[in-house]
Amino acid sequence: MSQPVLEQTVKAFSYIRFSTPQQALGDTLKRQSDKAAKYAAEHGLTLDTELKLTDAGVSGYRGANVKTGALGAFLREVENGSVPRGSYLLVENIDRLTRADIVQASSLFNSIIAAGINLVTLTNGEVWSLERLAQSPYGMIEITVDLIRGNLESARKSQLVGDAKARKKQTLIAGGDRSKPYTRQTPAWLHWNDTTNQYELLPERAAIVREIFERTDAGDGIDRIAKDLNTRGVDTWGGRKGQRKADHWRGGYMRKVLASAAPIGSFVPHTTTRDRETGARRDEPMETVVGLFPPVVSEDMYWRVNRRFATTAARGRNARHDPKSIVAGIARCATCGHSITRVSKGTYVYLVCSRANMRAARNVSTILRQSSFAFRLGP
Hints:
five-stranded mixed beta sheet, 13 helices, 15% strand, three-stranded antiparallel beta sheet, alpha/beta
């Protein structure tokens, strides 16, 4: 197809997407970038360098690149006029743009074309625009077939991966070969040792888990335990594989540790389904795999603590008391955004930033002054 003569001021935007982090280790990023640069140079386009239109490790099948990714950011720039009509969007193939079902995929394609953007698929050099489709409306059949093909390929891959995971879970439940890791995404106090071919405890972290259980079993509250860890300056966990590391210990995390089956060495695999309309994920627990991990605490202690947290109702001396704070679960600290907690000091009651109350702030006294106030109970 012959290309129009273009002015140097016409901009081209290179959109790059790949689904898995492993692909970043290969040549996919360079290959897609080089194709875009070559096309822009050959057709007199100015390749934009301001918008970073790369969705690395982002799915085009479930539309994450449109909902929260770089492609969605580009579409918003088109909508607000920052990307002018007549600009070019360069993609390696149409399935880099989307692999969603045909309704979503065709809606995305149509919205780009309707906004006056020229969509180029670099592998075959096709240019899709309002002018082309007006002259050759049967072109919609061609692009629709390509969109359907991309979706069906991803659906098949998703099914194959899902079936493989299901077989792996069933083998694990049946007590099959455990010389290879079922998963490397372990609880924070565990890791897989490639030399010994088994899961092993991280001693310092396992000691913290043991302390949490022992203190809870002795009657300490989870918030008190978290506060003590913060006061002692115990480093939080997380930060692996891009995970955000918490800035301080919280009672909520204590509860997750106590509720997990991993401290007694058990693992609960789940089956995952998604709602066809909303895409919402639903995890259903399968049969518990006993003895997959090395245990941290005894089963007797674990079940004693577990029974204590089997209900969310008030326990102990608080069971008969009415709630004292009308802002519980609603108020947030204006300084850091954390929740507000109620602290009683004799005849005074303070509403304090939970982060400051956990002794996690660098300058606790400053945050207390900024994010707390007191009122007196009674006359």
